[in-house]
Description:
The complex is a heterodimer. Chain A is mainly alpha-helical. In chain A, 64% of the residues lie in helices and 5% in strands. Chain A has helices spanning 2-37, 56-68, 71-82, 93-109, 137-158, 162-193, 198-204, 218-221, 223-236, 260-285, 311-337, 345-374, and strands at residues 119-122, 125-128, 208-209, 214-215, 294-295, 298-300, 306-308. In chain A, helix 4 (93-109) runs parallel beside helix 10 (260-285), helix 5 runs antiparallel to helix 6 (162-193) and helix 10 (260-285) packs across helix 11. Chain B contains 5 helices and 5 strands, in the order H-H-E-H-E-E-H-E-E-H.
Amino acid sequence: MSAEFLIKTLLALFFLGGVLNLAGLLTWVERKQSAVMQDRIGANRAWIEFKSPWLRPVNWLLRPLNVLGIFHSLADAVKMFVKEDFMPRGADKFLYNLAPVISVVFALLSFAAIPFGNVLQVGARSINLQIADVNAGVLFVFAMMSLGVYGVILAGFSSNNNYAYLGGMRAASQMLSYEITMGISLMGIVLAYGTLGLQDIVRSQGGYFFDGWLPAWGFTVQPLAFILFMTAALAETKRVPFDLPEGESEIIGYFVEYSGMKFGMFFLTDLVETVLVACLMTTFFLGGWQVPYLSADGFHFPWGAVWLLPHLAVAVLGMVSFILKVVFFNWFFMAIRWTLPRFRYDQLMHLGWKILFPASLLNVIVTSVVVVMRS
Amino acid sequence: MATKVMERQELNFWDRTYLPTVVIGLWVTSGHFFKNLILHALHSLGLFKGIRAAVTFEYPEEARPLSRRARTRHRLTQRKDGTPRCVACMMCETVCPARCINIVAGEHPDPNIEKYPVSFDLDLGKCVYCGFCVEVCPEDAIRMDTRILDIAAYSRDQMKLDIKELLNPRSTLLYKK
């Protein structure tokens, strides 16, 4: 019992540590990727260097990081922590302090159900590389993501500021509109694989099409759902093409009255949600920890070659593949964020209710018919 | 004249799904991204330094190339013996639209040269960099080719250049680099 507890704690620490570090790095990625995309150099003036001759070798190690500007994330954190923590007069003290906590906690809780590797055999014990194997994992993730919206709404509601209130209202309506599409588009995946557990969904994606050439990952089975889910999930992260709740140029948004680390928590939530959506996309549509042509005992290539690998190597390859896919989606979402302009509000509602929603319904109907016909 | 009626362009089905335009946009930005990323990587290995990966000039370390005709901070040219070529004819002071030049003339010991500037003060706080003083000078005594652009001071008085600084740019204490 206690060993089980220890293993779960270690898994949680490992995964959440990775997620938070990735989210922290995303601030750097955001700066640098936008810079490289726009023919700029980007932030590179946060510089850590030691004057003492004893520490010269450390300087050598720090230099590439300095040149790349990685310490800007650190400088950000320092800035957030030492800033004045301001609360507007007339704000609801309890809700005002609660809102950022709700945002962050529910964004992080969703990761509990995401499998980041197959079962790992250590001696006689088999460890499922997933923090909590919820058998209705899809519902759990959706519940957590929906609860996260409360943080945003409460922030707008409790700040005693009309612009924050507007931002909160916008967030509420946008989240509600897009969560429906998100849920219904995922019904296609649930129907196709016949399970709500995330680990089972990933395992079901281990098959192949065309005589074993094309891995049967989610996006090959459900291409329309892939696009619909990605759009709706991007809207859930409240980042640029869908940043109406924030609306930097007009209303600043639901966190207009927040400062210091409380603002930082909202900021972090956006990035954590980007990582979360990348994880979900990977899990549902890009085969999670599946590596093409890799089975439990090694590679079985479609042209007949076989390369056997020990169990540990297969498990590690699975985790690496999961991480690479998540990193790819993070890159892709950043590229979208720095490419597209913001929607107008009526365009946003039009896209959500008149295009994505009917399309997702159509997807469910077609998938159901196909599933029934095949069974 | 007949009125030209412009057809309002209606969006077709694919335009309304936003997908093709999103893909085109991503194609353009990713093209820039990967091209610049590869160039940055090659630069760090010391290759292809001639092709720039970014349009940024990191200013204090790297000066931006200036046009040959760029008007920068003024200087007074010198004769071979180091005295100013200026003959205190007051042309520049007269033409200056900002009235930033103030010359005090003195009798020159050489009978071939009529006058010389006892003091030549130029207030950069007033100067508009029009270059009229350079154009009007009959002796080619004032030029604006020092390539000094970083003109900053803590007070208006410090913006005033005297004849010493004008003859030898960046020689006096305040303007030393």
